[in-house]
Amino acid sequence: TPAATVLPTETATALPAATPTTASSPTPTLPAITYSFVWKLSTKQAPLLEAGVGDIDARGNVHVLTASEQVVILDPNGQVVRSFGEHGSEEGQFNYREEISTPLYPDGTVAGADLAVAPDGTIYVADGGTFRVQAFDPAGKYLFAWGKRGQADGEFEVPWAIATDRAGNVFV
Q1: Is residue 98 scored above 80 in pLDDT?
Q2: C-alpha distances out from residue 29 to 16, 25, 26, 118, Å
Q3: Which of 32, 58, 84, 104 is the most buried (most CB within 10 A)?
Q4: Is 19 exposed, middle or buried (0-12, 13-18, 19+ CB in 10 A)?
């Protein structure tokens, strides 16, 4: 008989029994996992930039960007583990709340930002206000940056989004 799982709504759903695979069976494909963020955190210390600007690391810690231009790391229970960053354009500083004008946005737009955590725990922040990506170790220590304003290789118009894959490649 299939196992049953009680869902939070107290309805039960039968799950199919596991099917064993053999060496001659094709390798199963793992499904893609998508996380949706519904943030209700907003404190004097860390009002969030916007819902969904964040990522989850291998330990289940949630990394988010705040309106005060910081990275805040929350444990799976929502408790703040650490935070780092401040407004500015130096190493470890962010300027993603700046309104900028670019060829794509001649009338101006808020620069924007995004964050991704690689499988090794490296935290990457795409900062539209400084036209760069910065990398930090899991403790928040600045590692390196790349990018500058422009449209040639290695330059950004406005780096709005960032992601990593399982191999640790970074996509901006």
Answers
A1: no
A2: 17, 12, 9, 21
A3: 84
A4: exposed
